[in-house]
Write a structure and sequence with these properties.
Layout lengths: L1 E7 L2 E8 L2 H4 L10 E7 H14 L4 E7 L8 H13 L7 E6 L1 H13 L5 E6 L2 H7 L4 E6 L2 E8 L4 E5 L8 H17 L2 H9 L1 H5 L3 H21 L14 H10 L7 H19 L4 H13 L12 H8 L12 E6 L2 E5 L4 H10 L3
Parallel strand pairs: 2-9, 3-4, 3-5, 5-6, 6-9
Antiparallel strand pairs: 1-2, 7-8, 10-11
Amino acid sequence: MKKILLKIKDKKIPIYIGKNTIKSIKLDKHIKSKDVVIITNTIVAKYHLGSLLKSLKRFNVESYILPDGEKQKNISTLNKIHNFLIKKKFDRQVTIVAFGGGVIGDLAGFASDTFLRGVDLIHIPTTLLAQVDSSIGGKTGVNHVLGKNLIGSFKHPNAIIIDINYLKTLPIKQYVSGLAEVIKYGVISKESFLKWLNINALSILNKESDKLLKLITISVKEKISIVQRDERESNIRAFLNYGHTIGHAIESSKNYKGILHGEAVSIGMMLASAISVEKSSLNIESFNLIEDTLVKLKLPITLPKNIKITKIMEHLSFDKKKKAGKNNFVLLKSIGKCHIVNSLSNQYIAKMVKNFQT
């Protein structure tokens, strides 16, 4: 088991990475009082809630179980969590445990920040996407009908516990979706990592433990490196949005149905890479490496025909990263070197999206 520290101002957040991690560490030291609320979903509860409850048997534990899916990530669900916490008469000493993927992490994180103006939080991410990305860095939020993650806050947990055993029950489609965020780290930060992912694609798809531990550890370290330098996304943390501007618009245009976050981001990365060749200095060899890695790891690189380009452009206008009415796009000068532009016209973006629609 590895322990990595995320250092934010006067807070040090331990991130544990390993196999059987949940049995190897003492959860007690990260929980201040006897009251614990686990927020999870039906699928995670079916496979893993029982074993987590055994690890917390000395505490007074309540579980709040949500249906699975991105469609749960809204204000209505947040209010239901608040209602549960209030009716159960929990006070400010309660610790909320986010036990699930990105949706659960965002909802539980936002709930922990807003209930009684803030209570303690622990992340136990059970999907690859949550383990390498969404559980780290403090972002929480819910979707709005007009756009993804438009309502939220920053809330750092007391600890993040990453156990690769949870990935055994993760459906392959969800697992592959998470690989998009892993590839992103190689693209924006570390070309050697991107090449390693390309070479080891088959072993990664087979969820080999040594490969999983390596790719998660490298991804976590890359995200920590960026977050520690720019916690509130005033500059370089925006690079983590590579492929996400268009990716989020794709998700929103489908009302978060029929396409997973990582799938949309994969298409967004392809578009951003193509734009980087045309409008920046990314060379074609690097573009080909990015495309080949996405393909080898079974991620989509073209936009399905059933997604309307007009809808994508409509949702781009509500992107939360907009400044002075202009969309910001992260482009590549080369693999590992990003910059942000806001000069791309809607006509140009629509043309590029159309070029990638099959």
